[in-house]
């Protein structure tokens, strides 16, 4: 099964390489970059998944320890994290555009075609019955991605669910069936998750979060006038609730993994010109993307005056680039696409329930009207005006 | 305690499956879950240097009153409740919410800039650094067009509005000017009347010793009249006295004319005044009042023609 998936993924990867600029040395495919540094890794696409795990793509300057807190930030591409960006089959145009926007904003993202789990991953299928989770995990495994952004569409594109999470992809665990001892992201070093041995669920890695995504505005909208360099590293701005509320702290880690561009990434740009804002309001996470516009004064005199006023020689302002959307967290899982539930949003109401209630309300209109009609009829019958004995007298 | 989320989500219509999940939730006490969350939190922290993550927490809290914050406010002392520190914003007020987000992001940008300079990461892009942008030039041109169109629209609306205002103002000014003129005229006339009255009063007190120009005018007019050759006028004057100004009196009957039927001609025509009084010497006039028997009758005329 894994082989088949790999074959599916192959042309996609090739397309991606074609898209890049031939002249720019930096803009190389990351896997190739990996190979340049760690030369013992053989050709990526031909290698079976297991060999990929055995070959650790950690560059020589790094100490052999796999934990990330030893990463030295010297401007080189050290934090080699890849993000898998994909969606389920049957998404509508709006979601597709959003996904395209997210892809342009995440240079460390790997593109994957729309996912149709079909029969293989259904319960009782050859894929082990893991559903989307198993399929996505497997693809992430094959593409060597550490984090996943998976946009799932349900009910004919009415509801969008965004899955963000760290995958079980770890270079140290040779087989997904065995419980991982250490992992690349350091998540599993001290926590052990029980894995059902029979299932192909790779619920190591993690955490993963399921969001209900609403209020989508894509970058194509003409109201968002900002623009930024393609691949520039965003400042990830969080509001204070991400520092105080427990589950939001976890969400923050995942968001940093997903949306933060690794330093020194070949496709990234060396300057900072955009900020991504995550705000916790009304029980939801609101996401905004701004361009940072810095205007330095044209003359020294003006600059001096400005410095006196604001303390900076430049005035900073923001322009929204887009996309904007709202993430309503539903559930946080310990593993990747599964595992123990760490947090549940109690106030989340499934959009199905809302829709069915609305429909019921509409259906009840008829029943109510009929009831009222019957009631009136009965009342009219019950009220009989007594005969006036004097009605005939004065005639 | 392994739940596959996909299977859970897939049979969301299936009440049986949901019930099973509910029970597992109940089994899992909140405390354990919180503990698990904290452990996971520790594990999830990759302890990367800031230059790798680029995450900033803006110190100023958002000014929204969500369910969480309200709960906290209720639990705490009341002085947190007054909005002196930051005014409370409704999350669903789009404009205010976006402004709050903007402020928050700006704050963290300033923080991040400082951190960047500390770490030695260049922040602002130099002018000569060209790079591919997220939005294509075509798209930006579209945005620009739209902006221009919008400003044009706004300008047009403004201009129309100001034009409207100006016309209204001009109208008002015109009306004001007219009323001012009328007022001035009225004031002038009333002044004149006042002066006239005071002059009259002065005259009466002087017992006719002072003569008005008005009297002179009348006299002059009278003199002029006396000089003209209007016989009818002269006769009327003779009969009724001078009273040209009283219109109605002229045509009133007096004793002599009341029963005078001399002017009556059953065949038509009107006798002039001059014919009324038989004794009235020189009363005949040439014009007006119908010329008596100047023209022969129709039969006479026919006869004369056939002759």
TrEMBL record, chain A:
It holds the Pfam family Brix. Residues 81-338 form the Brix domain. It is found in: Nucleus, Nucleolus. Transmembrane segments: none annotated. It comes from the Eukaryota. This is Brix domain-containing protein. Coiled coil: none annotated. Belongs to the BRX1 family. Residues 1-76, 360-395 are annotated as: Disordered. InterPro entries: Brix (IPR007109), BRX1 (IPR026532). Residues 10-19, 26-47 have a biased composition (Acidic residues). GO terms for cellular component: nucleolus. One of its GO terms (biological process) is ribosome biogenesis. Keywords: Nucleus, Ribosome biogenesis. Residues 360-382 have a biased composition (Basic and acidic residues).
TrEMBL record, chain B:
Residues 1-15 have a biased composition (Acidic residues). It comes from the Eukaryota. One of its GO terms (cellular component) is nucleolus. Residues 1-28, 159-307 are annotated as: Disordered. InterPro entries: Ebp2. This is rRNA processing protein EBP2. Keywords: Coiled coil, Nucleus, Ribosome biogenesis. Belongs to the EBP2 family. It comes from Cyclostephanos tholiformis. It is found in: Nucleus, Nucleolus.
